[in-house]
Amino acid sequence: MRPAIRLGVNIDHVATVRNARGGQHPDPVAAALLAVQSGADGITAHLREDRRHIRDTDLERLRTEVDAPLNMEMAATQEMLGIAQNLRPHACCLVPERREELTTEGGLDVAGQSSVLTPKVHALKGWGIRVSLFIDPDPAQIAAAAATGAQVVELHTGAYAQGRAGELERLQHAAAQAASLGLEVHAGHGLTYENVGPVAALTPVRELNIGHFLIGQAIFDGLPTVIQTMRAHIDKAAGH
Ligand code: PXP
């Protein structure tokens, strides 16, 4: 039987709600602790360059107060590399960032930027950090990701989540290609109870990172229930 798929819970949007009023509530670190108690295997947080949700102090607290792997999403900038060097999270997921975007709209162009990205991947690995590259399910990007020395690719499921034709097949081929190149396969973006099953059913997938839907649905059902329900959907689709 394949190993259980890990569920990484992205708590960025707890910080979005907190920041709407400028105070301390709701605390994303308290949400992370509850997520882990409720069955999350890890916590994901994106320190954006404009600090629109997660802040530097949130990451420092996530690292010291939460006993679960921390996946720091970040742009491949010198500033973020310096923060990762000090923080030493379990993993860094390199993502493209455009300041005006609402969310991470597309994957990283690893094929077009390999000479810039490769030394950064090596630097992170040298600090003992596992490196993941967030890419579209595109054969050229996967080959380029493997060539950088990154251990993991996270496949962008946004187009699939929007219902675009052929996207599940693209994810399937991409996952198989990545696994054949020795990359660990993660996936995420836009996943919900309704659409997570077919992605979880892709055999090479080892981890799913899910945020916006879980935090939104927690308003109605509470964070423990939504995490347990998402876990159940994932486990059922993966044959557990
Ligand atoms: N993975 C990556 C690399 C992301 O940038 C995001 C969004 O921050 C997610 C997963 C989670 O996406 P969503 O919030 O739509 O579940």
UniProtKB/TrEMBL annotation:
The entry's 1-deoxy-D-xylulose 5-phosphate-binding residues are 12-13, 48, 53, 103
Give the record's GO CC terms. Answer: cytosol
Q: What class of enzyme is it?
A: transferase
Give me the residues that bind 3-amino-2-oxopropyl phosphate, please. 10, 21, 190, 211-212
Principal place of residence: cytoplasm
Secreted among keywords: no
Q: What is its EC number?
A: 2.6.99.2
Active site: which residues?
46 (proton acceptor), 73 (proton acceptor), 189 (proton donor)
GO term, biological process aspect, one: pyridoxine biosynthetic process
Where along the sequence does the record put site: Transition state stabilizer?
154
Role of this protein: Catalyzes the complicated ring closure reaction between the two acyclic compounds 1-deoxy-D-xylulose-5-phosphate (DXP) and 3-amino-2-oxopropyl phosphate (1-amino-acetone-3-phosphate or AAP) to form pyridoxine 5'-phosphate (PNP) and inorganic phosphate.
Listed under subunit, the entry gives: Homooctamer; tetramer of dimers.
Q: Which NCBIfam families match?
A: pdxJ, PRK05265.1-2, PRK05265.1-3, PRK05265.1-5
Q: Which family does it belong to?
A: Belongs to the PNP synthase family.
This protein's name: Pyridoxine 5'-phosphate synthase
Per the UniProt record, the source organism is Acetobacter fabarum
Organism lineage string: Bacteria, Pseudomonadati, Pseudomonadota, Alphaproteobacteria, Acetobacterales
